[in-house]
Specification:
2 domains; two-stranded antiparallel sheet; 6 helices; 6 strands; elongated
Length: 208
């Protein structure tokens, strides 16, 4: 801790504060040994503060771990997302769904054009693509809503966290963890090779 304080002083770093989520770590004990502390924070020097005058630091819900994440937002900077047509890809996360075989059969059993077998296969493949995209697009929206709902519930529990509700919090985090694993698998497939190899489970990517 002494070395950490010396590093802050030598580099003129000061705490940017935090809105909500004052305590960023808890030991999850269910008895009177339960404790929580503020271990994580955002710091910056004066030069950085002059460059980014409008910032917001907020504590988010700890959906899976004993540490709560901290989000630093630069106010006034809008992220621009360029929309483009993407080719169809069968997503690896779909395999985890029990109903995927039934959905493929539904698309494949539609009657295609008679005659040319190549055109028939193309028609059936397009049919499968359509039912898969439609069903899983709705499924993705539902999953996002469920994650948001569970995250809000986790945040409410964490605001009053103590040994009396540790079990409830663990159950909520397990439920949201399953949904986040599906999201993670989806984005890993869509991401570039570097992220897939050096993602947030590879500490060298962040601590070079």
């Amino acid at each position: 801790m002494l070395q950490f304080r010396e590093a802050l002083e030598c580099n003129s770093l000061s705490d940017l504060g935090c809105q909500g989520g004052f305590f960023t770590w808890r030991n999850r004990h269910k008895d009177n040994t339960f404790t929580k502390e503020k271990l994580d924070r955002c710091v910056a020097n004066n030069q950085w503060k002059l460059m980014y005058k409008e910032v917001k630091v907020e504590g988010l819900a700890g959906r899976c771990f004993d540490h709560l994440p901290i989000l630093l937002s630069l106010m006034g900077y809008e992220e621009r997302i360029r929309r483009r047509e993407c080719p169809f890809r069968f997503e690896a996360s779909w395999i985890k769904e029990e109903c995927v075989e039934q959905i493929v059969r539904l698309g494949w059993n539609k009657e295609g054009p008679r005659g040319d077998p190549i055109k028939r296969i193309q028609k059936l493949l397009n049919s499968c693509k359509g039912v898969l995209q439609g069903w899983f697009r709705r499924k993705d929206k539902d999953r996002v809503k469920d994650i948001e709902m569970l995250t809000k519930k986790i945040q409410e529990v964490q605001e009053q966290e103590g040994p009396q509700n540790v079990e409830e919090l663990n159950l909520l985090q397990m439920r949201v963890g399953v949904l986040l694993e599906q999201e993670d698998l989806k984005w890993k497939q869509l991401a570039k090779k570097n992220w897939n190899c050096m993602g947030d489970k590879n500490t060298k990517f962040f601590h070079a």
